[in-house]
Amino acid sequence: MDYLASKGSEQTRKIYQNHGCNAEVFGVKVGDMKPLQKAIKINHELALELFRTKNGDAQYFAGLIADPKKFDQPTFEEWADTSTWYMVTEYALAWNLAESDHCLSICKEWINDPSNKRQEAAWAALSAYIGITDQSDLSTEFFKELVDRVEREIDHVEGRVAYTMNGFVIAAGGGCSDLTEYCIEVGKRIGKVHVEMGSTSCKVPYIPDYIDNMKKRGRIGKKKKTAKC
Known about the structure:
By secondary structure, the protein is mainly α. The chain is 63% helix and 0% strand. It has two domains: 1-66, no CATH class; 88-229.
């Protein structure tokens, strides 16, 4: 915590606030967390302690050093319910959920949960899961059904849930070559998704354009070794 506090700045804190962070944060750039992450590597117990501080920077860093294989469902639920803002929910939590053995079972449950945080985490985790899982191990039928669900529901959900749903269609189109063209067509029908992005000029990626750019760069079907940045 002392290290994180020493790396915080008012400028970064304001950037996070402009992006909708209302939690206690030191204002630490992700790049400034990397040396500490490299030194610690994985320390799951420390990650759990850091997450319970409810400091936004500490929670994000906890996601970097947690061991996805040591989570159980109650701990994932605790992280979802006490995450302080979307950078924690959609990244720190979602990365670990994507790499855990519980990913699909929990995500199937959470996309139907009344909690927006759990829905956000689930769609973000599913996107990350696609990005690290070999195509031969992905169920095209299952993910196509989820893409269809996004098309039906995206106009009726709240901000960050819509953002992560939009990202899921992109992930499905980019990570499952059998769904690439289908996701482009679904994206055209969905159109441009508008989400409140705080006091920033950030916009929600337009699905067809984003997937087309992946095709041009030869990124369709390419996989990452880890969900964590």
